[in-house]
Design goal:
Blueprint (H helix, E strand, L loop, with lengths): L1 H34 L2 H27 L12 H28 L8 H29 L2 H29 L4 H28 L6 H12 L4 E12 L2 E10 L4 H18 L3 E10 L4 E8 L15 E8 L4 E8 L9 H11 L4 E3 L7 H9 L3 E3 L5
């Protein structure tokens, strides 16, 4: 529900941008045509290009969040594709501004200075207000599409300021004031366009997210003591959402407990990392540098017990990968003969010791205990090692 609400809010901002751009374009074209101002008319034509840009991004967002069997992660990258097209449109708009101001029309001032000043000032105030709130929403939603549209509004504000600066510069006879303003605004717009194109291309190439996000994910995982090693941690961006693929080594043989642990890790990642939509965690048992073998002995402390439930002594050995005995301990059976369910109690005790192999004569071992040992990867050996 949260993801759907986020997509609805993105669409709201893009639709509002399209409608507002249509209104401003029509107003500028009418004013420029009616009062004979070529600068205002050119500004209106520039705003029309933003109408198409905003509409393109809106259509991408409209379909981005839909998941199907063929697209299980949704069509989120449509937002990045639209951001690339929007970034190219921004570069084209910059080219048009430079071409118009420095090579073709120059800065022509309308005859009705005061009326045009008031009109353009009102447009600028409305554009700045909408840009402020949309840019704030783009950062909160972490949306490249909404961010691209906000930068488009920055370009509109820049061109409107150019019109205003040209009129004021003409009134006060300030040389080259409008040309300097053009250069400054063009640099700002080019820098913003570079950021948009860079982020969109990296997302389409499935590049990893920033180091800070990865570090935060690692710190969250490290809080769980059962995780002994993070084999793989890859988080990529798709549109405005994040998708994580993680492989962990877990010191937990019980499958139910391991699943519960993975669920807790996934929940923590979702809660603490913004816009994390899909988390896939694969886990495997922790690889120990040694194995633990339990030899079930009779009362002689030498012979292998012929009955699981009547085991008297247990010899526990730690053996490394080269077969060298690291530690050996002989202990009496901790399960009292007077207790009921001696077999299952002894099996539970062995599991708690993280035994890898059990050596004894398994003729009388219950099938349920065999199944349990097998599920936990505990090997049953009926002959002592040489």
């Amino acid at each position: 529900m949260k993801v759907l609400k986020t997509y609805s809010e993105k669409q709201y901002w893009l639709l509002a941008s399209v409608l507002l751009n249509v209104v401003f374009s029509a107003a500028k074209l009418f004013w420029g045509w009616h009062f004979g101002s070529t600068v205002v008319t050119a500004d209106g034509i520039h705003s029309i290009s933003d109408v198409f840009g905003a509409f393109l991004i809106f259509m991408a967002l409209r379909f981005a969040g839909r998941k199907t069997r063929r697209f299980p992660f949704g069509l989120n990258k449509l937002e990045d594709m639209a951001a690339i097209l929007g970034g190219i449109a921004i570069l084209f708009a910059v080219y048009q501004i430079i071409r118009s101001v420095f090579f073709i029309h120059g800065m022509k001032t309308p005859e009705h200075l005061l009326g045009t000043l008031i009109f353009i000032l009102a447009i600028i105030i409305l554009e700045v207000t909408f840009y402020f709130f949309e840019h704030k929403a783009a950062l909160r939603l972490n949306s490249p599409g909404v961010k691209t549209d906000a930068v488009n509004w920055l370009g509109d504000i820049g061109t409107s300021i150019l019109v205003l600066a040209g009129i004021i510069g003409y009134y006060f006879s300030i040389p080259y004031a409008q040309e300097v303003a053009v250069v400054i605004i063009v640099i700002l717009i080019l820098y913003s366009a570079y950021g948009i194109l860079r982020d969109a291309v990296l997302t389409l190439l499935d590049a990893s997210v920033d180091t800070e996000t990865l570090r935060k994910a690692r710190l969250i995982i490290r809080r769980f003591q059962e995780v002994t090693r993070t084999e793989k941690l890859f988080i990529r961006r798709s549109g405005s959402i994040l998708i994580a693929d993680i492989v962990l080594q877990v010191n937990e043989k019980n499958m139910h407990n391991a699943h519960l642990l993975i669920d807790k890790i996934e929940q923590s990642l979702h809660q603490e990392i913004n816009n994390l939509d899909t988390v896939t965690i694969h886990y495997e048992p922790a690889h120990k540098s040694f194995s633990i073998i339990a030899m079930l002995l009779d009362e002689t402390k030498q012979n292998i017990a012929t009955s699981f439930r009547n085991t008297k002594w247990i010899k526990i050995r730690q053996i490394n990968t080269d077969g060298v005995v690291l530690n050996e301990e002989l202990i009496p059976n901790p399960i009292s003969p007077a207790q009921n369910g001696k077999a299952i109690r002894l099996a539970a005790w062995l599991i708690k010791q993280q035994i890898d192999k059990v050596i004894f004569k398994p003729e009388d071992l219950e099938e349920d205990i065999k199944t349990l040992f097998s599920a936990l990867g505990i090997e049953i050996i009926d002959l002592p090692p040489k």
